[in-house]
Amino acid sequence: MIKKTVALVTGDGSGPEMMAVACKIATEAAKEDGVEIVFEETPMGWNAYEKFGDTFPESSFKRAVEIGTIFFGGVGDPKYDNTIGAEKPEMKPEARCLLRLRKEMGLLLNFRPMIYYKELAHLAKVRPEMIPSQGIKQIWIRFLLEDSYFGNQDFISDIPEDIKNKVGLRLKKNVSGEEDIVMDLAYYRRSTIEKYLRAAFAYAREAKLPLISIDKANVMARYDFWRKISVKIGKEFPDVPLIHQLVDSANALLFEPAKLHGVIACGNEHGDILSDGAAAAFGSMGMMCSSAINPDTGAAMFESGAGTAPTLAGHNKANPLGRILTGAMMLRHIGAPNGATSIEVAVNKVLRDGCRTKDLVSSNEESDEEIGILGTSEMGKEILSYL
Ligand code: IPM
Ligand code: MN
Question: Which CATH number fits domain 108-146+188-293: 3.30.160.340, 3.90.1150.10, 3.10.580.10, 3.40.718.10?
Answer without folding.
Answer: 3.40.718.10
